[in-house]
Write a structure and sequence with these properties.
about 250 residues; alpha/beta; Udp-n-acetylmuramoylalanyl-d-glutamate--2,6- Diaminopimelate Ligase, Chain: A, domain 1; 2 domains; six-stranded mixed beta sheet; five-stranded mixed beta sheet; 10 helices; about 35% helix; elongated
């Protein structure tokens, strides 16, 4: 299977029609679209370390959630870090396929993966763009117990909790930065909202506003989708060699 053929198959599974209008993803870097793909490195972020691993491991493709190129790239000259990474990829013959907000929104993607990990049932989209998910727990639990469950299941170093002292029953989730959808989660009937980043003032106001809020970190709420992507790649071609790369560079000290 060539790079372009792999992208076409993933594009069928994760269609660009689901992307937010402001997004930029897809076939980010492609030195040779007809190159045979045997080794794929999956990562949340295309960091310098991820590129180095792809080069050292002889990978043909990097498959990422966050786009390699999001804002405009002004020059490819090796002097600026993003341009340098792009040069390294091109010279190494490594293509980058990124699936961003469409992977958040697609059935089985980032947010459905979160729901599955947390044992939520009957999850359905919420919000104007349908990226988030809202579902129910099989039995209610306290906000503190739910926060401990989130921390354990996501392998997060910490979970920040704005405790409204309400039982956790109906949960809305949105991996990554979900502050803009807080109102939509409330309107959808959530008693609890989990995201990677929400914001200090909303978290502080949670007890008065009447909805439990949890921040588990941008990386940790999205990283589980790398396992989902590996499953999808194996369905496309079971002969591929696939490796997941842990791209988090932010430390908790």
């Amino acid at each position: 299977m060539t790079v372009r053929e792999l992208y076409a198959k993933l594009n069928e599974k994760i269609p660009s029609s689901l992307s937010c209008p402001w997004d930029n993803d897809g076939l980010m870097c492609c030195p040779d679209g007809e190159k045979e793909v045997r080794r794929v490195l999956i990562t949340l972020d295309v960091t310098e370390e991820a590129v180095a691993r792809a080069k050292a491991g002889g990978f043909d493709v990097i498959l990422s959630h966050h786009p390699l190129l999001f804002k405009g790239l002004k020059a490819v000259n090796g002097e600026q870090y993003l341009g340098k990474k792009t040069v390294d990829l091109l010279l190494g013959g490594i293509s980058v396929l990124s699936f961003h907000t469409r992977l958040d929104a697609v059935e089985g993607g980032v947010n459905d993966t979160l729901c599955r990990l947390l044992g939520m049932e009957n999850a359905e989209p919420f919000g104007e763009e349908g990226i988030g998910r809202i579902g129910s727990l099989s039995s209610p639990m306290s906000a503190e117990d739910f926060a401990r469950l989130v921390k354990e299941r996501l392998n997060a170093p910490a979970v920040f909790l704005g405790d409204a002292k309400k039982p956790v029953c109906r949960v809305a989730v949105l991996g990554g930065s979900g502050g803009d959808d807080l109102g939509a989660a409330r309107e959808a009937g959530a008693d609890t909202y989990l995201s990677g980043n929400l914001g200090y003032h909303d978290m502080t106001d949670a007890p008065e506003a009447g909805m439990n809020l949890l921040e588990a970190g941008h990386f940790f709420t999205e990283q589980p989708v790398t396992a989902t992507l590996e499953e999808w790649l194996m369905e496309i071609d079971p002969t591929l060699f696939v490796e997941q790369f842990y791209s988090n560079t932010v430390k908790t000290v």
